[in-house]
Design a protein that fits this description.
The structure holds 2 protein chains of 2 kinds.
Chain A (H helix, E strand, L loop, with lengths): L4 E10 L2 E2 L1 H10 L30 H5 L3 H16 L6 H4 L3 E5 L7 H12 L5 H12 L4 H5 L3 H10 L6 E4 L1 H17 L5 E8 L4 H8 L28 E9 H6 L6 E9 L7 H13 L6 E4 L5 H14 L5 E3 L1 H4 L6 H15 L20 E7 L5 E8 L6
Chain B lengths: L12 E10 L2 E2 L1 H9 L6 E2 L12 E2 L12 H20 L10 E4 L7 H12 L7 H9 L14 H10 L6 E4 L4 H14 L6 E7 L4 H9 L29 E9 H6 L6 E8 L14 H14 L8 E3 L6 H15 L8 E2 L2 H4 L6 H15 L1 E2 L22 E2 L4 E8 L3 E8 L4
Parallel strand pairs in B: 5-6, 5-7, 10-11, 10-14
Antiparallel strand pairs in B: 1-2, 1-8, 1-9, 3-4, 7-8, 9-15, 12-13, 14-15
Helix pairs in contact in B: 2-5, 3-4, 6-12, 9-10
Classes of the chains: A alpha/beta, B alpha/beta.
Chain lengths: 399, 426
């Protein structure tokens, strides 16, 4: 028996604000991005907005147990549960499945710097130095605030989502696998309702370091994601944010009278090398599997990394030349693990509102005639992983 | 010939290949011989200095790869060894597997030798030691070799290329339940009809000073350093924590019908998987043990069997005061006092806690228990904990026919995953 998948809850955080409504409003208006060019100069980032954490994480003790990426994610998961009218309904949260796309990290910069300073001052016994410093300086619970699966763990503790808890890792691909797996489980009857998403904190030098190892980051002033110069670095501007979706079998959603934003159709993802145009060939296959050619518009999430963003734009120009696109990372930044769920959430909001995000990049983005009812979501990771999802109007899901 | 669907009409999931690396050695034969003779793989750490550390022992795997390798490299090497052994046993092409791949792997980050190297390069540009300087060095190209250490998908992607797996490989973490979750994801894909063969791997080569210190600061590790091989004492009164270890376990799984159709040897069946998250605390279990109990019940229900059908339990059995008490409490509520006379032993008494790999390694050992009719012992059982009146197969392996095993995996963050593994149906 095959079940159809309804999107019934959305939680979003980006530099544009907190919640699906605020984020949608900003993107629909085409508001300028919020950019912090100072904190991690020369690298601009899109910072998280002001958040009153107690709105979703009631206990201060819980807030203190999390590093910013976990707090963003736990807060955002609460937004999605609230939005779906599931929060606090223990019969629903206690049977709800969860797949979180997570990285980890957020190291203690002071402790790391102290170790590096002693090494720089001439200490050569690095192993001893590391032992000395870490055993005395590390905050014991910091480990848990860094640990990948503890975002999910915190969501269980704070929001009582306990049906199951799985954490997928692997940069942009983790969000693709999380959505694809959660949707496939619902279709096959292995799950009735699931919380899926992730979070990323750009405002930490450790997070930037992993990208700058290969020179991915854009330096200096903000520039549009489809117009960044190689003279200014690698093209990526990271954003702090989070995205969580509540997915439900359509019958499950109807039975509890849930509001349905949209239907999540096919989700497909792959990765591999780029020999002899292999990336473009994979994109062609993913597009065919998901029916991307029939989309009214495409929400795409280019990272800005030059090589793969170029492949993506050529692919879209050659195969979907007549389909309007919105490169939404232009004003949110690149969101790593939660990038794909973020794109899918925006697609659901677009079909729900019968409108699309405003064009913010003339020459690349053009107006859409009429209300979109069938939106393709395309995410291409900055180094690897490609994912496509189809999001269609909820009118197809009548009970 | 028996049915090729299970009690719910789903494709029965056959194990056709299994592979393992642990501190006891490489491959099933060596591992099983050592495990059944009660050999410990725990030793003094030589990989890095241990001065100032409360715990100076571990089950590191030092016989694969160069001695000063990175955690990412070792984690990959372990995964590859286990996966290739499983593929060879399954008789499948290890360069063109053509099915999906699920990899439980430890979280990654730039490693300490790399930070020190970057900062040293950055120092030439001036500035204070720290991240700005490391970023400057990275910008100048000094960090390209470190990329695999900083990519969560690196191990799975490399293994995908090596064995010719298809699709986007899944890299996952459910902490110390990860290996079992990797198997569960593979089982679910087969049941959905998405795949006619899958590889599930749990791997962990991440024992370094910082990971040891992190667990130590949480008071999770044994400090019985004097006699390393005696440190891990699951179910004993004087147990004082787990011993970190490394290794990998892998299964090749197929629908039973497909395995038979191609004439593969069916080693066993994954009959059921169950999970339940705990919302009580980041490192402690709900005092009534209800989430672990729910995971056990879910696995039995998924398998369509009653508790009485379980002949042996492969414990999570970490040797921490908390885990062993909670595991026994939860199991007692399902199986009866003293766990209803069902023998339960802990592989971790010998190999230590292989963390991300543990669920997969212990699933391989569960399979070997069934195939050989031997229960591996819980070693170091000199001082039984009177509060845990269980048959833990103390100290010496036992010959006993086993048709069905429950394998438990529990982890920080409220993770509870259980597998039911059985022999090939008659």
């Amino acid at each position: 028996m095959t079940h159809r998948v309804a999107i019934t809850g959305i939680g979003l955080i980006s530099c544009h604000g907190v919640g699906a409504a605020e984020t949608w409003q900003a993107l629909a208006e085409g508001r300028d991005p919020v950019v912090d060019g100072r904190t991690l100069a020369p690298y601009p980032i899109h910072p998280a907005p002001e958040i009153d954490w107690s709105e979703q994480i009631a206990r201060r003790g819980d807030q203190r147990q999390m590093e910013p990426w976990q707090r963003l994610g736990t807060f955002c998961a609460g937004l999605a549960l609230d939005d779906a009218a599931i929060k606090g309904e223990e019969t629903l949260t206690g049977t709800m499945d969860m797949i979180v796309a997570a990285g980890g990290g957020e190291r203690d910069v002071d402790v790391d710097s102290a170790i590096l300073a002693e090494a720089a001052a001439g200490r050569n016994d690095h192993g001893m130095l590391i032992n000395e410093k870490l055993t005395t300086e590390l905050r014991p619970t910091l480990f848990l605030a860094q640990l990948s699966n503890l975002l999910a763990g915190n969501i269980s503790i704070v929001h009582k989502v306990t049906g199951s808890s799985r954490t997928f890792m692997g940069e942009e691909g983790s969000g693709m696998s999380a959505l694809a797996t959660a949707a496939a489980r619902i279709r096959a009857g292995q799950s009735t309702h699931a919380l899926v998403g992730g979070a990323f904190n750009a405002a930490h030098p450790d997070m930037l370091l992993s990208y700058e190892l290969v020179g991915h980051l854009h330096r200096g002033d903000w520039a549009p994601v489809l117009g960044r110069s190689k003279a200014d670095g690698g093209g990526m501007i990271m954003g702090s944010g989070a995205a969580f979706l509540v997915l439900e079998a359509a019958e499950h959603a109807h039975a509890r009278g849930a509001r349905i934003y949209a239907e999540l159709g096919a989700v497909a993802a792959d990765n591999g090398d780029d020999e002899a145009g292999a990336t473009t060939a994979r994109l062609g296959r993913l597009a065919a599997e998901t029916g991307l050619g029939e989309a009214d518009m495409v929400i795409t999430t280019p990272s800005g990394a030059h090589a793969r963003t170029a492949i993506e734009m050529v692919f879209l120009a050659e195969t979907l030349a007549d389909t309007p696109l919105r490169a939404v990372t232009n004003t949110t930044g690149s969101l790593r693990d939660c990038q794909f769920p973020f794109g899918v959430a925006l697609a659901a909001l677009s079909v729900h509102h019968g409108a699309c995000p405003a064009a913010t990049q003339p020459g690349h983005e053009r107006p859409l005639d009429g209300a979109p009812s069938r939106i393709g979501v395309l995410t291409i990771g900055c180094e690897e992983a490609e994912g496509v999802a189809m999001v269609t109007a909820a009118t197809g899901l009548t009970s | 010939m028996s049915a090729t669907t299970d009690h719910l009409g789903r494709p029965t999931v056959a194990i056709t290949g299994a592979g393992i690396v642990s501190p006891l050695g490489r491959g099933k034969a060596d591992n099983w011989a050592a495990l059944c003779s009660g050999t410990s793989g725990i030793h003094m750490i030589t990989r890095f200095p241990t001065a100032h550390l409360r715990t100076t022992i571990a089950g590191t795997v030092d016989f694969i790869g160069p001695p000063d390798t990175t955690a990412s490299e070792l984690t990959y090497a372990l995964a590859e060894a286990a996966a290739l052994e499983a593929l060879a046993e399954a008789g499948l092409d290890d360069g063109d597997f053509a099915g999906p791949l699920f990899v439980a792997a430890p979280p990654v980050e730039v490693e300490w030798p790399q930070r020190l190297a970057l900062d040293a390069v950055g120092a030439r540009q001036g500035g204070e030691p720290g991240y700005a300087r490391m970023l400057g060095a990275a910008r100048a190209g000094a960090g390209t070799a470190f990329v695999p250490s900083a990519r969560f998908a690196a191990v799975a992607n490399r293994l995908k290329r090596r064995i010719g797996a298809r699709g986007l490989p899944v890299t996952l973490s459910t902490a110390c339940a990860s290996g079992a979750t990797a198997i569960q994801l593979g089982v679910e894909a087969i049941r959905r009809g998405e795949a006619t063969r899958v590889v599930s791997v749990g791997t962990d080569g991440s024992v370094n000073a910082e990971s040891l210190i992190r667990f130590s600061l949480l008071s999770a590790l044994s400090a019985h350093n004097e006699v390393p091989e005696r440190a891990s004492r699951p179910f004993s009164k004087d147990r004082d924590g787990f011993v970190m270890a490394e290794g990998a376990g892998a299964f090749v799984m197929e629908p039973l019908a497909a395995a038979r159709a191609r004439g593969a040897t069916v080693l066993g069946i994954v009959e059921g998987c169950g999970e339940k998250a705990d919302d009580f605390h980041r490192t402690r279990s709900k005092p009534d043990g209800s989430p672990a109990m729910a995971a056990v019940r879910a696995a039995l229900d998924d398998a369509g069997v009653e508790p009485g059908a379980i002949d042996y339990i492969n414990a999570h059995g970490t040797s921490t005061p908390e885990n062993d008490k909670m595991e026994c409490l939860s199991l007692s509520q399902v199986f009866g006092e003293g766990i209803g006379g069902v023998p339960i032993s802990s592989n971790k008494s010998m190999i230590g806690h292989t963390l991300t790999a543990a669920g997969a390694i212990e699933a391989v050992f569960s399979l070997l228990t069934i195939r050989t009719g031997t229960l591996p012992p819980t070693i170091n059982h000199q001082t039984p904990d009177p509060a845990l009146a269980v048959d833990c197969v103390p100290n010496v392996a036992r010959a006993q026919a086993v048709t069905r095993v429950l394998s438990n995996s529990f982890g920080f963050g409220g993770q509870n995953t259980c597998l039911v593994i059985a022999g090939e149906p008659a």
